Amino acid sequence: MAPAPANTTAAAAGGLAAAFAGLAAAELAAAFVRPESAPLTAVGGAVVDATPAAVKEWAVRSFGTSDKLVLTLGIAAVLALLAAGTGILAVRHLRTGCALAAAVGVLGAAAALGRPGAGWKDALPSLAGAAAAATVLYLLVTVVRRPHPAAGRPGGTWPMDRRAFGRLLAAAVGASAVAGYAGRRLGAHGSAGATASRADLVLPPPAVPAPPVPAGADLRVPGVGPFLTPAGDFYRVDTALVVPRIDAASWRLVLHGDGVSRPLTLTLAELLARPLTEHDITLCCVSNEVGGPYVGNARWLGVRLADLLREAGVRPPSQGGPADQLVARSVDGMTIGTPVETVMDGRDALLAVGMNGAPLPFAHGFPVRMVVPGLYGYVSACKWLTELRLTTFAAYDAYWVRRSWAQQAPVKTQSRIDTPRPFADLAPGRVAVAGVAWAQHRGISRVEVRADGGPWQEARLGDADGVDTWRLWVWPWDAAPGEHTLEVRATDGRGAVQPQERRGTLPDGATGWHSVTVSVHA
After folding, report:
1. Of 163, 161, 132, nearest in space to 144 by CA
2. Measured distance between the N- and C-terminal CA atoms of the chain, rounded to whole angstroms
3. Euclidean distance between CA atoms 434 and 249, whole angstroms
4. Which among 388, 425, 107, 357 has a CA at the least distance from the CA of 260?
5. What number is the average pLDDT over the span 386-415?
6. 439-475 burial code (b ≥16 CB/10 A, e <16)
7. Is the pLDDT of residue 57 over 80?
8. What is the CA radius of gyration of the chain?
9. Which pLDDT belongs to residue 249?
10. What is the pLDDT of residues 219-238, one digit of tens each?
């Protein structure tokens, strides 16, 4: 039988199977180290850290809270192309192909070692994956590229034994699937203690309970969400590709730094033994475009942060304290810098343990997170909190500040039309135009709406629940046939009107009036 060239499709399939084996082996190994050490997670985190702020903003605008899934799928697609090419290369240059497969794993190990809080063990999953990928690639490619026994025919091959290759490929994929599944199950088992600790946690009643939400705060207009946002609907914007799952029994908070005369290390039980305050607070992400969805309102339960700082001997700068920045650090290495003066000016800045009457969900920071009314989340709302360090803005730039965002970022006054939706097709007659407005720690005193650039009309506001929450609003509009543009603007509790000029989110939050265009049919 005449010699035949190697099967390119089979070679590419071998490369893909080898990559799958490597990822599965790494997933299994990560179950014995920590989820963050898995190569896709480690590389994804490194990509997030290296991505320019403008690109991150584009990703948030384009994909919303699915941006992490899109990133993971993108990395997987690049890896698949590389794996297929490596398989084809290995048919002609076996050692080079296997070395390349192993090198990809080594890069994953380097990414894992570079993650915040990483130790030498974090490299093991990627190295295990590298060994598995190179081994599987070697075994599969040797089936594809058997040398022809005839002399003088360099590069020749037997026709590929498709059955043998198919059996080996199926065995490799099957074993990899089992290893990957086992890794996921073991990883889930490893977080079972954290899940149980949250399920078993009983929050003490607040020493300072929040007053009942005013009966008129929720206007119950169809198309507008409730006054208090359910935890499952609350926005999530962070850099964690894997949500940290922390066992409450092992959690510790360390408070130290400049001006701290009595450093503190607290367990969750010790924190919960302190007087708890309950407060309704609206949170907003600085990435929220005009009219965007990244804002929510919840009832938070926690320890007043100012009381804890004073117990540690901290004084605000206005009273001679040496530190003007409080740097919060998450278990995943995220750092967020908050002005000490703001935290200690009398507002209910909290180390929150509860959200809407239940322990914090894992996705929102269990067991403890920061919540500071009046500031965007990137300078105030550290989740999965583990450390508080007093320093200065001159001495240290937190994570987002190093990526072109402002050091200090009070929330800007914003308002949003929730109904009718953009490009809605409406019947003529009375239409409820409604939405929300917010200016945390200043409050909302007025909301105005206009149609087609006409005179501003004052909307009816829902009852206020303090100055730290949004207010719902509604305006009855007599809609005539045609195409119309509706605009909204708000006035904060100090009399400042929301600016009209449109600005993007960088460096300290978007400005501008929200508008929607609708059609009213005859």
Report:
1. 161
2. 79
3. 45
4. 388
5. 96
6. bbbbbbbbbbbbbeeeeeeebebbebbbbbbbbbbbb
7. no
8. 28
9. 94
10. 999 999 999 999 999 999 99
pTM over 0.85: yes
Considering the chain, what percentage of its residues have pLDDT values greater than 70?
95
Measured CA distances, 308 to 168, 338, 349, 350, 355 (Å)? 62, 15, 11, 10, 20
CB atoms within 10 A of CB 520: 19
What CA–CA distances, in Å, run from 354 to 36, 232, 342, 351, 367? 25, 14, 22, 9, 8
Element (H, E) at 462: none
- Structure tokens given for 111: 């990414």
What residues does 476 pair with on adjacent strands? 432
DSSP 161: -
353-363 tens-digit pLDDT = 999 999 999 99
d(CA 142, CA 140): 6
- Bridge partners, 325 (sequence order): 339, 391
pLDDT, residue 154, reads 45
What is residue 473's predicted lDDT score, i.e. its pLDDT?
98
Query: Which one, of 342, 4, 37, lies nearest residue 150 by Cα?
Result: 4
State the DSSP code for 256: E
Residues 512, 505: contact at Cβ < 8 Å? no
Average pLDDT score over residue span 242-254: 94
Instruction: Say how far apart CA 476 and CA 494 lie, in whole Å.
Output: 26
Omega before 125 within 30 of 0, i.e. cis: no
Is the per-residue pLDDT at 132 higher than 80? yes
Cβ neighbours of residue 80 closer than 8 Å, sequence gap 6 or more: 16, 19
What sign does the dihedral 374-378-379-384 (CA atoms) show?
positive
458 backbone dihedrals φ, ψ, rounded to 5°:
-75, 130
Between CA 40 and CA 238 the distance in angstroms is 17
DSSP 172: H
Separation CA 281–CA 260 (nearest Å): 28
Distances (CA, A) of 138 to 8, 131, 264, 325: 15, 11, 55, 55
The predicted pLDDT at position 430 comes to 96
Judging by DSSP bridges, how do beta strands 444-451 and 457-458 pair with one another?
antiparallel
Residues in CB range of 393: below 8 A, 6 or more apart? 324, 325, 337, 407, 408
